[in-house]
Write a structure and sequence with these properties.
Layout lengths: L1 H53 L2 H5 L11 H16 L5 E7 L5 E6 L20 H9 L3 E8 L2 E12 L2 E11 H26 L4 H33 L3 E6 L4 E5 L1 H6 L5 H4 L18 H15 L1 E9 L5 E13 L2 E10 L1 H51 L1
Helix pairs in contact: 1-5, 5-6
Length: 401
């Protein structure tokens, strides 16, 4: 009878423990799902920031937000860049740049869809169903992750980051993940640890309950490590496939520790290990156009980027064959393995400079033509006056005679 009583007590105690564990499992599932959602939004916002930093805001200022942009090299270059970034991120469905008219209409500057895609948005297309959160980004200049929200293309979780030029917001960069993909990510990242928690708790019971806390910490650590590894893999993919030169420099001598294939091609270097012996000043002429020593000015730019977090400027670089070329440079502060470093993105703007020079030359020719034309007009007017005076004198002589 005593064993039967103890058995009943154990069975009741076991059922109570299972019930408590089930409740805890459900609660943990909800908490993990919320945690995964927050982490996913942070990661999406970080990716969008990286893409926004890669976009040259000066190019955006050249766009009118109309079909006339289709013939502009700057539009096509920007579109190719968004398509490449979108291709490197399988979970992201759309990347786009939005503008806002003075009347408050949201429109597309450019998107990551090919022109023959049914989801393609031509420049100037009005985004009538834009949620109020997009308007708030334009008005408050604060980046956000919003959604799920629906429009004509589907239901999305979207990260929205403003693009600035000289302190003024000129557009908003958006990255969309389909809601089904987003929820699938949340469920998959939440279901496994919760199921494991319940299974271990039911089978082992109260004796492993005290060890559960330690196991939970390990699980969280593993999740964080996997998330970090996944983020690093995505960044590495973006790093390798980025169209512009992208490098990383490390203190104290600020030499390159990594460079993507575009950087090797830009500086005409065969292998990455050959790049690692240089710093930014080594790949520059002795002096910059303003007369400053490249070595000294490079130190100033690095110090400013470390202080302000990022710095965008023009620079003259040189390739391994000593050929010089103008470039736009973005220095962005980053942290790897607890160590502060700088990410360097370089874009060759030789073609843009040539176009500017040709436009300036054409403008000067127009000014000369204008001056010559005005001189001829003034001479014609003077001749007309002289003819009128001679005619008047001739008429006067006839009357006298």
């Amino acid at each position: 009878v005593g064993m039967e009583t103890q058995g009943k007590k154990f069975f009741l105690s076991f059922r109570l423990r299972v019930f408590i564990l089930v409740i805890l499992g459900i609660i943990s599932l909800v908490l993990i799902a919320r945690f995964s959602d927050r982490q996913g939004r942070k990661e999406l916002l970080l990716q969008t920031r990286l893409v926004q930093k890669a976009v040259n805001p000066h190019i955006l200022t050249k766009l009118s937000g109309s079909e006339d942009d289709l013939n502009l090299p700057s539009y096509n270059s920007l579109k190719e860049q968004l398509i490449a970034i979108r291709s490197a991120n399988s979970k992201c469905r759309f990347i786009y740049l939005l503008g806002r008219t003075p009347e408050g209409e949201i429109f597309f500057f450019v998107d990551s869809e090919p022109a023959d895609s049914p989801d393609y948005s031509p420049p100037g297309q009005v985004y009538n169903e834009a949620p109020q959160s997009i308007h708030r980004v334009f008005l408050s200049t604060q980046e956000i992750v919003e959604g799920p929200s629906s429009d004509r293309w589907g239901t999305w979780v979207s990260a929205l980051v403003p693009v600035f030029e000289q302190g003024k917001i000129i557009g908003v960069l958006g990255m969309d993940i389909e809601a089904r993909t987003w929820f699938r990510m949340i469920i998959l990242s939440s279901l496994l640890p919760s199921s494991l928690f319940l299974l271990i708790g039911v089978l082992i019971g109260v004796f492993l309950y005290l060890n559960k806390r330690n196991e939970w910490e390990k699980l969280r650590f593993n999740e964080s490590r996997l998330a970090l590894q996944d983020s690093e893999n995505k960044y590495r993919g973006l790093f390798l496939n980025f169209r512009d030169a992208m490098m990383i420099i490390k203190p104290p001598d600020w030499r390159f520790i990594s460079g993507n294939p575009a950087a090797l091609e830009m500086f005409k270097i065969n292998e990455e290990k050959q790049l690692l012996v240089f710093n930014p000043a080594d790949l520059s002429p002795q002096y910059q156009p303003d007369g400053a020593l490249s070595s000294e000015k490079a130190k100033q730019m690095i110090e400013t980027a470390l202080l302000e977090g990022s710095l965008f400027f023009e620079w003259v670089h040189k390739r391994s064959d000593n050929q010089e070329f103008p470039a736009n440079v973005l220095l962005a502060k980053m942290e790897l393995a607890g160590e502060v470093m700088l990410q360097v993105m370089v874009r060759d703007i030789t073609k843009n400079k040539k176009i500017e020079e040709e436009n300036l030359k054409h403008l000067q020719e127009l000014e000369v033509f204008y001056r010559v034309s005005m001189g001829r007009e003034e001479r014609i007017i003077e001749l007309k006056k002289e003819v009128a005076m001679l005619k008047a004198e001739l008429d006067k002589c006839r009357k006298v005679s």
